[in-house]
Amino acid sequence: MANLTTNAMGVEFKNPIITASGTFGFGEEFSQIFDLSILGGICSKGLTLHPKQGNKGVRLWETPMGLINSIGLQNPGVDKFICDELPKMKSYGTKVIANLGGNTTEEYIIGAKKLSVTDVDIIELNISCPNVKSGGMAFGIKSNVAFDIVSSVKKVCKKPLMVKLSPNAENIADMALACESGGADAISLINTIKAMAIDVKKKTSVFDNIYAGLSGPCVKPIALRMVHEVSKVVKVPVCGLGGIMTSTDVIEFIMAGATIVQIGTGNFIKPDIAVDIIDEINEYMDKENIKTLDEIRGII
Amino acid sequence: MKVYHSKVLENRLISTNIYKMTIEIDNLNNDIKPGQFFMLKTLDNSFLLPRPISVNEVGVNTVTFVYRIQGTGTKSISYVKLKDYIQATGPLGNGFDINLINGRVAIIGGGIGIAPLLYLTKCLKTTSDVYLGYKDEVYLVDEFRRYANKTVVVTENGGIGFKGFVTDYVDYNNYDIVITCGPEIMMNKIASKCRDLNIKCLVSLERRMACGLGACLGCTVETIYGNKRACKDGPIFAGEEILVQWRK
Ligand SMILES: Cc1cc2nc3c(=O)[nH]c(=O)nc-3n(C[C@H](O)[C@H](O)[C@H](O)COP(=O)(O)OP(=O)(O)OC[C@H]3O[C@@H](n4cnc5c(N)ncnc54)[C@H](O)[C@@H]3O)c2cc1C
Ligand SMILES: Cc1cc2nc3c(=O)[nH]c(=O)nc-3n(C[C@H](O)[C@H](O)[C@H](O)COP(=O)(O)O)c2cc1C
Ligand code: FES
Predict the structure, then answer these.
(1) Chain B residue closest to A20 (CA)?
(2) Looking at this predicted complex, what is its ipTM?
(3) B241, B219 Cβ separation under 8 angstroms
């Protein structure tokens, strides 16, 4: 069997497959379906310093090969996460990534400080959520704003810091470079693409916030292009995601330059999709006589 | 709870736009509760998210669903041929707690909301009176008659059974508990009435779902205790708990 062990940010992952924020809860629901220790890592639901109720109105809307969501970062808050969810997450035998969002720089900083003194393996800084009114994605559009927040958080952060980019950034390569120079230990992309849907019967926007975030297979070609662009310019590892549904998708992201990848919407389509993907990557590597993923990483 | 790849043993039209599908699910140690559901998906990629469909009946190593063609997903599911396979994740949701349903029970179903109530009627330890509201065509009536003490059929045009709305034919004061599944407007009416009369009421709610497992927080229901997930904390809720969402 091929060797899927992957190092990034000084952390050793069993394999490069991580489940994406907001699509896997805190892992508990999925632990009843498969053994989570086979995963490279689990990323928590987006956390904010204070608990959040999330958005009102319709939160999910299916589009051809895509999903638009307007969850609005509903979460129990950092303290409750650390107390109630983290111990369970740590018990699954895989790396734990805490996804941290915020409305203000202050909130990000306090959140990162609190998470820094826990067993969390990595902090993923979410500066890319399109579903909250202030903050969130507002930090992820302009490179200079992103630089400021990343460097402020980096000063207090004692964990490897991965910064999650929005595809809605003005210029994705510049954005990645700004985050890298702000101190990011890795870059993950993409978060959801700002999108909308209209209910023609009700003659209104489907979502109370009007815009929401698009994910799923339909975004993959865009995500792949962005991962490729970013991988070409940054030195830190890149975590690729957006529409991954198969092992072939994963291989594509790795060939485009990703060191690790995340599966998001795919977890909804088939809750044990990660099991299939990991098996199939092994098969692919054996068939192609590839010993480690380094042989194909960034070859495009 | 498991992700099954199940063989389809039956998938046929039982009324206009309404299908009955039975799939093979082995190794089930009788752990399906009435009111629970499965997330169903065809193995082609004709649609993306699995569709939540309630358990209508449970047999020896089989589960039956009754579903109405609503759009792309249910249409695709209706095309699945005998002996083909379908992805079914479940059983999901809290389901009804049979041990807490005692005394004189009324079960009120409207439209496709009738389907999940059959297995409940079968499982109840006490007998129940069943009230079924249809538009014009009826379905599953004989099956309900098999398990219910009394089965009242109501159609909007009165073509079959009584005429009008099913809610008009229930004498709430005769019951200790009322259970309902159907259009929200009907469930709202019933839950409000039960609250006013101080009768216990259980409703089965529908929400758009992505995971069906409790992980995505897409199916939120506003309750007096705060946000709950229709897929995990529900789909069965106490009437008084969720009335708040309709009070606007
Ligand atoms: C817990 C639960 C149990 C259900 N049980 C049954 C059942 O036993 N029989 C039955 O016929 N129907 C049932 N439904 C409704 C059924 O899930 C929808 O009719 C179905 O998802 C529609 O999919 P579609 O692709 O045909 O329609 P489309 O309108 O094309 O669907 C588009 C999207 O909206 C979602 N959607 C549309 N209508 C509904 C709805 N009413 N509820 C939830 N999501 C919806 C779909 O899942 C899909 O993601 C149940 C729903 C829930 C939540
Ligand atoms: C329902 C839902 C909730 C999400 N919540 C979060 C979140 O809390 N934090 C975050 O960084 N990304 C969140 N995302 C974005 C995903 O992590 C991922 O970046 C995006 O969906 C693209 O990947 P995919 O196409 O594989 O889903 C969410 C996505 C979905 C569909
Ligand atoms: S459908 Fe995902 S939490 Fe209910």
Answers:
(1) B216
(2) 0.95
(3) no
